[in-house]
């Protein structure tokens, strides 16, 4: 029996080793009192209860252990089943992978077999074509021989060609049949008249090309492999010269053949998409351009070649886009010289390399028809936000605005800030009467206000008749009443405001007119202000579509004004820092960041070159090059101004993006 549990209520307070007996009331572990004997055994009730609870807990734990063992065995069975299931899936997956691999091998075998069949088919087609070609050549050669035999009994004529006067003796009937030029020449002479020697000694009358013309007269074709002249080794130039000669000699079949072969060379050989090299065309393309645009004519220069068939029978193109054909009287068809279009496309595709050469820039400037044709195929330059443009711009600009309304508001605020006392002092002097333009609009301006102009400052202090009478007439090309109105505003307020209700002139055109008048009158402040406002207007057009289309209408007018009345060092290139990220994409340094002295050499060089350029010219070229596709499609006047002002055309070309290289379609013609 166990006694002395600390929690027992009968625990002996003296020894704390036993419990007081229930019978005698004394602890049996201590000494018994005298005369008291108790031999009954007893135990601690608290301990007994604890033992009882312990046994109950132990029994409970044993039951839980049995339950856990049963669950563990069940889990092991499930795990074993899952393992076998995964194994079965892996086996199935391996079987599927093997089957997939076998199918792939089978597919590869089928593809190889298909490719072999395709090769065999192409070989058979090629052989069939060769046989057909041989048959046709045999038939054609028979016709040519019969034709040849029927013509060689005619009289002959000697033709002296080129500066060296190389002689060609040709049967008259043959060249008259092939050439309208010779047919007209001999038709004016009597049959019994002695035939004189014919001399052809212009630049287009090249000995080699005339020899190929003779080949075409007798054989219906011409050959290029046998030509040994190094100057004619380049096929593009050779075909171009032959094309020009065929136009002069009025031989359409030879023209078509030369154009076809030039096209095949350009886009079917070296110049295929992604496979052309600049060295394949340069410098011979320059001579080809010069020959074609000097010795061919095209009444539709600057227009895309198209017909109503391109848009269906019910539509056609106009200055304003595609419109219903019912609105037109006749069917539209624009026929262009094929070689001009071909060579303009080729130059546009290699624009980036070509414009780096001075010879091409000079040639582009010298042939307006060529630069206008090439305009059809070059792409817009990238446009960035006005803020980014302003960071790298070399032309100072004032605060930007997002719409024309914003421009007007900003100008009004500037006028309110003027010093009233300074303004009032201008009225202490007499007025000077100025008649402007053909309508002789009168302006009476205080002499003190005119001091901002070098022209009027010298005029008012001179001994000239105008100074004595205080009257002058301004009637030159740039003296418009609208621009002079802006000049008067600047004289009094050092600023000007365009009220479109009062002055019916497009805003950009007014800034251009004011810029020119300020230059003529020697008013540098007004000239810079007009340029700043024009820059601000273009910034607004970049950001706002409505403002942009409004500005489009004024571009052609502004181009005619600025490029017709300003001059600059055109040899200097326009930098692309405004509107184009010209730094190397692999370099993380942006030349537009302020405070960085290690800008790229290219950017620095471009800025040096641009310092002699007229600011308004640069502005117009940049804006136009950003929206070439829209301007050339929907604004016919833009094409006309581009053609009329070669300086503008060259400036736009230096900024534009190169055109796409072109592949041939199934008919052997360049894809649109």
TrEMBL record:
<dbReference type="Pfam" id="PF00651">
    <property type="entry name" value="BTB"/>
</dbReference>
<feature type="domain" description="BTB">
    <location>
        <begin position="430"/>
        <end position="500"/>
    </location>
</feature>
<feature type="coiled-coil region">
    <location>
        <begin position="44"/>
        <end position="134"/>
    </location>
</feature>
<feature type="domain" description="BTB">
    <location>
        <begin position="155"/>
        <end position="226"/>
    </location>
</feature>
<feature type="compositionally biased region" description="Basic and acidic residues">
    <location>
        <begin position="593"/>
        <end position="607"/>
    </location>
</feature>
<dbReference type="InterPro" id="IPR000210">
    <property type="entry name" value="BTB/POZ_dom"/>
</dbReference>
<keyword id="KW-0175">Coiled coil</keyword>
<feature type="region of interest" description="Disordered">
    <location>
        <begin position="587"/>
        <end position="607"/>
    </location>
</feature>
<dbReference type="InterPro" id="IPR011333">
    <property type="entry name" value="SKP1/BTB/POZ_sf"/>
</dbReference>
<protein>
    <recommendedName>
        <fullName>BTB domain-containing protein</fullName>
    </recommendedName>
</protein>
